[in-house]
Amino acid sequence: MLSMSTNNLSYSDQGGTDSAVEVGQETTPTSSNAGAGFGLFSVDFKKNEDLKEMLESNKESLKLEAMKRVVGLIAKGKNASELFPAVVKNVASKNIELKKLVYVYLVRYAEEQQDLALLSISTFQRALKDPNQLIRASALRVLSSIRVPIIVPIMMLAIKEAASDMSPYVRKTSAHAIQKLYSLDQDQKELLIEVIEKLLKDKSTLVAGSVVMAFEEVCPDRIDLIHKNYRKLCNLLVDVEEWGQVVIISMLTRYARTQFTNPWKEEGVFDERNERAFYESDEEKTRDETEAKPYMMDPDHRLLLRNTKPLLQSRNTAVVMSVAQLYWHLAPKNEVSIITKSLVRLLRSHREVQYIVLQNIATMSIQRKGMFEPYMKSFYVRSTDATHIKSLKLEILTSLANEANISTILREFQTYVKSQDKQFAAGTIQAIGRCATNISEVTDTCLNGLVLLLSNRDETVVAESVVVIRKLLQIQPTQHSDIIKHMAQLFDNITVPMARASILWLMGEYCERVPKIAPDVLRKMAKSFTSEEDIVKLQTVNLAAKLYLTNSKQTKLLTQYILNLGKYDQNYDIRDRTRFIRQLIVPNDKNGALSKYAHRILLAPKPAPVLESAYKDRDRYQLGTLSHTINTKASGYLELSDWPAVAPDQSVRNVEVIEPEWAPSLGKTGKSKPAKSSDDKFYSDSGEEEEEKGSGSSSSEDGSSSSSEESGSDAESHVQKNSSQSSEESDKSSSQSEKSSSESDSEKKERKTKTPLQKKTVKPTAKDSRYLMKRAGPTSPKQHTKTIFVNVINQHSVLQTFSYSHWSTLCVSLFTQLCPLSLAFPLQVSGPAFVPEKSHDLLHRMTGKGLSAQYQFPRQPCLYQPTMVSVQISLTNTTDHPLEQIHIGDRSPTGLNMHCFNTIECLEPEASVTVFMGIDFNDSTQAANFQLCTKEDHFSVSIQPAIGELLLPITMTELDFRKEKGKLLGMNESSATITMAAENMTSQPISRPVATVANLGVVPSSQGNVHRFAGKTASSRAVVLVTVELRESSTALITINTEKSVMGSMLLRDLKLALAQA
C-alpha cells in the first residue's frame, strides 16, 4: 500500500525565511512587497512545487518518493492534475516501480489532459513491447484512456496485438480496452467483434470474465460466437474470478433460454446425469423405461446446471445471487429448491445485501411458497432491522401464509402491530388484510382482530385498520352489519382523513343495512363539512346522494344543504362533484332521462378489491438485475427470451478435434509412450503427470505442438509451466465436445444404469474400452497395468470391465504408487451395539380424533433404500369405531425422499399395528413433515431425527481407524474435554451412553484408556469416528472426526451431555 509522507517541506521565500508547508495545502505569501488588499485575492503559485522539483530531479529515489505521494493525493480524492507535465516526463523511465506509478497517474488524468498525453503516444507504443507484462498492460490501459478519436487506429492496432500476447494479464487488459474503444467509436464494431471472437477461444480463466463482459457490451446479440465456446466457459466457470463469474452466468442464462427447450414440463423425465433433487438419495432410483415421457434434458443444459451448482457456496453474494437466478430461470421445478439454503444464508450479511436478496425471495415466494416455507423463521422481523427490511420480510411472510402456518404468522403479526415504527405497523395491518383475503378460514378472525385495533390510541393504526376493514367487508357485506355500526360509533374519535372517508363510504354503500345510523352520521358531517379535508368532503357528498335515493324523507333537506355547501367550496373537484350529483339525483325538465338511472349508477354492486402483493408482476424482469430492483426497465437491460418450441441444432456447440495418431516412437527402451487421453479430467492426477515426465516424447508430438492450441488436441507433451493450466482446460473442453458429438443413442442407453460402488460414475462405452486397450497394447506388462488403472480412475469408470483377478493383481502391484489417489473401499455395516426403547409421540389421540401414533428408530438398515433411515411407527385406534384407509398424504419439503407404508384398509377399535417407513434425511436433522391421513381426516405430523440416528455402525480394525482418522484432521476434527464421575471411568459406563446417543459400532482398542467408535452417515456414506480418551482427574477428551463438520459439532454436543450425566 502506498504511503504518503507527513513530513513538512521547506520553501525559500523571497525574504529568505523558511516556512514549513504541508504537501497539498496552500500557503499565504509572507513577502513584505505584497499589499494587504491584494493578499485577500492572492494565489499561491508554489503549491506542490516540492513535488515538481522532486519529479524533475536526477535521483530515481526522489522521483519514486514523489510519485508515491502523488498517488497518495489521488487516493485521498485531491486534485493533482497540475503535476501532469512533470509526471509525464518520467514515462520513459527505466525504473519499473516508477514507471508503474506513472502509468497509474496517467490512467487517472489522461482523459483530462489529452493534449499532453498525446505527446507521449510514441512512448506508450514502445511500452507495448516491453518485456514486463505489467508495463505492457499499463501502457495499453493508458492508451485506451486517451479518448481522442484521432488515435482510434492506433488503439485498434494495440488491442489486436495485445489479444495475441503471451501473458493472460495483457490479454485481459485488451478485453477491457475493447469496451473503451467501442464507447469512443462504434464504427469499429466489426473489427472489435473479430478480436472478441479470438479472445473467446482463450483457455485462461483470467481472460474469460473480461472478454464476456466485452461481448455483452459490444455484441450481446451475436449468440453464434458463444456456440463453440459454451462448454469451455461452463467448465472454466468455477476457476474464474468472482466478478467474471457473475458476468458469465448472466450471459449463459440468456444463451440457454435461446438454445434449450422448456424444462418446466410437469411430466418430463431427465437422463441420469440429472442432478439430484434437494432431498433425493445418492443412488439411482430404479425407473420403468416404459413410462418415460418424450422430454429429455439436453446434455449441455445439464452441464450448465451442474457446473454452476458449487458456486452457491461462494463467499461473494453477487455470485450466489447470479446462480440463484440462473436456477430460477433455467432449472426444472424439482431442482430449484437447492438455491433456498444459499439465499437464506445471505440474510446474515449487510442490510444492503439483505434488501436485494429479500426482494428476489419476495418474487420467488409468490410463485413457489414451498421453497421457503421450511425457513419461515429466518424471515421473522428483528428489532434492529431497518424499515425497508422489515417491509420486505413482512411481504414474504404474507406470501408464505397458508392454512397450516397462518396461526403462527398471525401471532407474529400481533407483535408487529405494536411496533413503534408507524409505517411498519400500518404495513402489518395491510398484511393481515391480505391473509384474511387469501385464506377464507381466518377471515372472521382477522376481522375481529382489526375491529379491536379500532380502540388503539395510535391514529395511524386505527386509520389503516378502517381502510383494511372496508376492503374486507366488501367480500362479505351481509354478515358484518355489526362491524359497520361499531365503526359508526367510533367515527367521532377518528381524525385521520382516509379513515373517516372509508367509514363514510361504507355507510353510503351499505346504507340500507344501517337505515337508522347512516342519516345521523350525515347530520354530523353537515355540521363539520366546511372544516373537513377534501377526501372526506367528497365522500360526504356521495353519502348524501345515496341516502337521498334510499331514504329521501329523512335526508332530503340535509342533502340540499350539503350540496349548497359544496357548490361554493374552494376546491374545484368538490364543486364539480356537487354539480354532477345535483343534476343526477334531482330531476328536472332537462335531465329527467338521466335521473331515473341514478339508483343504478350510484348504488351499483361493486366488485371486492383484490389485495395483491406489490411484487406480483416483478417476475417479468430477470431476477438479480437493476430492472427487477427498481421495477422499471433500466438502460441496457437485456430481456430473457421465451423458450424455443423446438430446440436448435445442438451440433453447433461441437468443437472439431483432430484425433492424434498413436504411432509408436522409439526411445531408449524401444517402447512407445502412450499419449494423454482426451477424456482426462480437468485437473490431471499427479501420478499420470509424473509418468509423462519420466517417459520419452515423440517427435510427432513436438511437431504438432504449435497447432494444439487452436485445435484443442491433447498431443502436447512438452509444455511450459506457465501454460500447463490452459492446456489442461483445453483437455476438458475438447473431450466433452468430442463426447457429445460422437455418442450414439445406444451408448446413451448403456449409461442408464448406475453402479453402487461410487456416487457418480459414467460407464465406459464400447469405444472407450477399445480405446483404453489400444493405448495400453504396445507397452511393457508393468507399464500396461499402470496405464490402464490410472485411466480407469481418471475416467471415474466402473471396475467391472476387468475381472476380479485383474483387480487384485493391480491393487497389490500398484498400491504404493497410487496411494495419493485415495481410492475408497466400502466399509461393512454391522449390527447396532444398542437399540434404545424410547418412543416419541407422532400423533396424540386427542389431536388425531382417536388415532394415536408413536415412532422410534430401530437402528436397522433400511430395506427400501440404503440411504434411508428406518422408522418404526405404531398406530393405535382408541375410538369405538373402525378407522379406514390410513395412509401417508402430502409431504414437505418438496423433494423429500420417503418410502411410505402400504395403506391400512381398516384398523379395528382398540387395535394396534406396527408399520415401517424409510426416510432420507439427507444427513440433516431437519424435520420430515407429512400428513397422516384416514378416510375422513388429515393430520399434519413430523418426525425429527436425533443426530445419532442418522448414522450406521461399521466394522473396523484399530489400524483402519487410525488411517481414516489421519485423513480427517484440521477442520474435519472437533473435540472437547469433560469431567466425569470416578466410578464411570471404565469401559461399560463409557460404551453405553455413546451407543445410546449415536448408532455407532465399537472398534477394538489395544489401549485401556482409549475407546473408539465408528460409523458412517446413512445418506452420504461419510465416515464418522469417535474417540473417548480417559485422562487423570476424572476428565475425558472426546474427539470426533468427520468431513460433515456440522454433524460432528452437533454429535459432540450430545455426547458431552450424555457422558457428563452418566
From TrEMBL:
The alphabetized UniProt keywords are:
Cytoplasmic vesicle, Golgi apparatus, Membrane, Phosphoprotein, Protein transport, Transport
**Ranges of biased composition (kind: Polar residues):** 1-17
| The AP-3 complex subunit beta C-terminal domain, residue ranges | 785-926
**Compositionally biased intervals (Low complexity):** 695-710, 723-739
Main localization of the protein described in the UniProt heading: membrane
Q: Which GO terms describe its biological process?
A: intracellular protein transport; vesicle-mediated transport
Topology within the bilayer: Peripheral membrane protein
The keyword Hydrolase belongs to this UniProt entry's keyword annotation: no
GO cellular-component term (any): Golgi apparatus
By sequence similarity, the record places it as follows:
Belongs to the adaptor complexes large subunit family.
Give the protein's function: Subunit of non-clathrin- and clathrin-associated adaptor protein complex 3 (AP-3) that plays a role in protein sorting in the late-Golgi/trans-Golgi network (TGN) and/or endosomes. The AP complexes mediate both the recruitment of clathrin to membranes and the recognition of sorting signals within the cytosolic tails of transmembrane cargo molecules. AP-3 appears to be involved in the sorting of a subset of transmembrane proteins targeted to lysosomes and lysosome-related organelles.
Its name, as the record gives it, is: AP-3 complex subunit beta
Q: Which organism is it from?
A: Oncorhynchus mykiss
This chain is encoded by the gene named: LOC110523451
